[in-house]
Amino acid sequence: MESRNPVFGRSEEFARGGYATFDTRTPTADDLQGMYDSPAARSRNTDRMTIDDVVIRTASLFGVLLVAAVAVFALLKPGDPALMMVTFGGAIVGLVLSLVISFSKKIRPALMLTYAAAEGLFVGGISLIFETVYPGIVIQAVLGTLGAFGAMLALYKFNVVRATPKFTRTLMIAGAGYLVFGLINLVVSLVTGSSAYNSPIGWAIAAVGVVLASFFLILDFDFVEQGIRNGLPQQYAWTAAFGLVVTLVWVYIEILRLLAILRGDD
């Protein structure tokens, strides 16, 4: 099954059986004895991607993102014209860089770190705007994002939800539909000043966005697992980390929107 995550979708390395899937011939008795006697391999010995590599690089990207977001909180104030410029500027730069990284045939850690910084400006700015209107909402959204990540990881780890071809197709169709709806709603809101999220069913629409974004984490976990199984070079840990960060930012924004809608009814 090929990846449908935009980050992994053009990469055969993350497909089952891709890149350097290990030799599947039946080992002989001598082969088994040799493997038994050999010391445990480490990523520095094999130069292959491990889960530790993915975790370290994911933490690196999130570290840059958090520093940028905290800087926005510390240096800018609500109502400051620079806040809107930083927020939307970060969003646009982050979008452009994400497309460049996703469609590039080379792994570009520097661009990924730059993306994390730009996305941090956007996340920090939008969080400050929401926090001004709904005090305490940011910590709620952060905890909600961590909860969604933990829940999806548990569902995947214990095989409750698997990234089967049917699951992937269904999720991609739903995701595409949600994207089209979002674009239409944006155009309508710019023209009329009214948004579907302000309607009585706004919370339900926002809840669908949270669920969709969370389930995309299942695809991320699956493609990371396949990449490790296929024996990818260590550098691909950057690609895996980037994909996780993209999805987690999406989850956070969707949860932030849902909480704002629910609190708007208080």
Domain count: the total is 1
Q: What profile does the largest beta sheet have?
A: none
The chain-level mean pLDDT equals: 82
What is the percentage of strand-forming residues?
under 5%
Based on Cα principal axes, name the global outline: globular
- Helix content, binned percent: over 70%
Total count of helical runs of at least 4 residues:
9
Number of strands: 0
Radius of gyration in whole Å, from Cα?
A: 21 Å
Task: Enumerate the spans where pLDDT stays under 50 for 5 or more consecutive residues.
Answer: 16-27
Distance between the termini: 45 Å
SS-derived structural category? mainly alpha
Element order: H for helix, E for strand: HHHHHHHHH
Organism: Kineosporia succinea
Protein name: YccA/Bax inhibitor family protein
Pfam families: BaxI_1 (PF12811)
Keywords: Membrane, Transmembrane, Transmembrane helix
List the helices and strands and how they pair.
Blueprint: H1 29-37, H2 43-46, H3 51-75, H4 81-103, H5 109-133, H6 137-157, H7 165-192, H8 202-229, H9 236-264
Helix pairs in contact: 3-5, 3-9, 4-5, 5-9, 6-8, 6-9, 7-8, 8-9
